[in-house]
Specification:
The chain is mainly beta. Helices cover 6% and strands 51% of the residues.
Length: 288
């Protein structure tokens, strides 16, 4: 059984733009430095929004050096970026954006959701890129709910969706630069599952709803992340209540992390260059 190293609690809530009340569960300036290749995870909501005709969200901003993975649980978002990509994602859908050499993008509540109001909940994960790929061309993947394998777990424990990586031969649709797994679990109250993450991967379990008992030893609740030691062995999760959990595993990059705001590179010089390139318009034209 893979040993638990620690359980980490999210920071205080804050707003991203006027559309996303979030708690940063981990970030590259703290625990994220130990979870390579995962840099940051924000949990937005669940939050109720009243109907309006005013667009809510976060306006155009840059990124370089990593990927953003946005999983929508409730509500509906729209995305536009300087590479000409755009799209709308709703409950169960995932947006996988590769910033790499640089991109400008914006994320807003969709017009339909804005007019109707309702509950918005999402999680955004930042995945680091290896040094050799940080200046690759930007990219974008829309992963619709219908295209994400959903595996029914034994014993009526719940369902596991394979966003990236592999689970029991079910391959997630996301294309990744390095070996990672992103498994999105919905567990029934009383459900218990044994999961086999790859040996040697960084491993973290993030609780987004409910309470779970991990390895029959440690309890974790909403907005807590269970960090495991590097090594080998399965883990067990037993849900005390209905639970929503993200399992993240990945091959560590073992490279320096230097981050400042929306840029994550390997050296201070690369960060300074990212700001120069942004201010000189080299990260792309504003989203049309």
């Amino acid at each position: 059984m893979r040993a638990i190293r620690e359980i980490h609690r999210a920071g205080e809530p804050h707003w991203v733009g006027d559309g996303f009340p979030v708690r940063s569960i981990f970030s590259y300036d703290g625990l994220g430095r130990e979870l390579s290749p995962f840099l940051l995870l924000d949990h937005a909501g669940p939050a109720k929004f009243t109907p309006t005709d005013q667009q809510r969200g976060v306006g155009e901003h840059p990124h370089r050096g990593f990927e953003t993975v946005t999983i929508v649980y409730e509500g509906e978002l729209e995305h536009r970026d300087s590479a000409g990509n755009g799209g709308r994602i709703g409950a169960g859908d995932v947006q996988w954006m590769t910033a790499a050499s640089g991109i400008l993008h914006e994320e807003y509540h969709s017009p339909d959701f804005t007019r109707s109001g309702g509950t918005m909940e999402m999680a955004q994960l930042w995945v680091n890129l290896p040094a050799r790929s940080k200046m690759a061309l930007p990219g974008y993947q829309t992963l619709l709910n219908r295209d994400i394998p959903a595996v029914t777990l034994d014993g009526n424990a719940g369902v596991l969706r394979v966003v990236a990586g592999d689970y029991q031969g079910h391959q997630g649709p996301a294309r990744t630069f390095t070996p990672i797994n992103v498994w999105d679990l919905r567990l029934n109250a009383g459900g218990r599952v044994v999961l086999p993450p790859p040996d040697g991967h960084t491993l973290a379990l993030v609780v987004l709803q409910g309470t779970v008992l991990v390895n029959d030893a440690e309890t974790a609740s909403v907005d807590e992340v269970v960090v495991f030691e590097l090594g080998a062995g399965d883990i067990t999760i037993a849900a005390s209540t209905e639970a929503k959990v993200l399992l993240l595993s990945g091959e560590p990059l073992n490279e320096p992390i230097v981050g400042h705001g929306p840029f994550v590179m390997n050296t201070n010089d690369e960060i300074r260059q990212a700001f120069v390139d942004f201010h000189q318009g080299r990260l792309g034209r504003p989203a049309a």
